[in-house]
Amino acid sequence: MEIGFETIGIIRSCYKEKFGIPRQAGLAPTATATLELLPPFNRAEAFTGLEGFSHLWLLFLFHGNNREEWKATVRPPRLGGNTRLGVFATRSPFRPNPIGLSAVQLDRIEQTHGKVALHLKGVDLLDGTPVIDIKPYLPYADAITTANGGFAAEAPTGQLPVHFLPEPNQTCQALENDRYPGLRQLIIDTLRNDPRPAYYQKRAKKKSFGIKLFDFDLRWQQDDEGIIVTELLRRDH
Ligand code: SAM
């Protein structure tokens, strides 16, 4: 049976590429995005009452997957990348129907000139992600405190210390005073969860990594001691 869905909105996220995006919603609480609703779904009345909820479920498409096929087993980064589990036992983006599900914080709803935008925090979403549904997060039904978490029972520790070299430190300060308040904490929240591929986590010798965050190229080095931010440069478009 073929099933079709319409995109109801598009995510505008601080994360401009897949590498570096937190592996679950809420792991980087300062990671922001805006969900811009598309016509005909951008009607104010469709959101009446939503302002009473602190969190939302988003259903979305993993549109940035660069391979079509799915495999019955995948290797979750949480298990070091070398143990295979059934795709339906994981939250892998590579699934028969590439649909994602994230519980994100609703910061505020913006309604201006016929436009509706939801301002979100704690996202694990790539810029440009198409959203196919929004539902309010219901703590009484959705937060099951007695649930078993399988191979991912504990939250990732995410406590790697993050230091800045003087130059990116200064750049960060200047940007924070300008258009990017909270940028330093976003960088810390993003890096301390160790975004490196699982196979790097074993051979942790200093190597440089980079991600695209907002309009910037961020580079860092990582070893057993933690993370050092080495560059924060505005990207040339
Ligand atoms: N919370 C969702 C879920 O459980 O369905 C997503 C979990 S998935 C493990 C999170 C990863 O998906 C991110 O680290 C990022 O690399 C990737 N991702 C996020 N948005 C994406 C998109 N639009 N297309 C492809 N990959 C995406």
* Major sheet size, sense and barrel closure: 6 strands, antiparallel, barrel
Average pLDDT rating: 93
What class would the helix/strand composition place it in?
Answer: mainly beta
Cα separation of the termini:
43 Å
| Hetero ligands | S-adenosylmethionine
Number of helices: 3
Radius of gyration: 19 Å
What percent of residues are in strands? 25-35%
Helical proportion, percent range:
10-25%
Q: Give, in order, the helices and strands.
A: EEEEEEEEHEHHEEE
Unreliable stretches covering 5 or more consecutive residues: none
Strand order, largest beta sheet: 1-2-7-6-3-8
Oligomer: single chain
Shape: globular
What is the number of E strands? Answer: 12
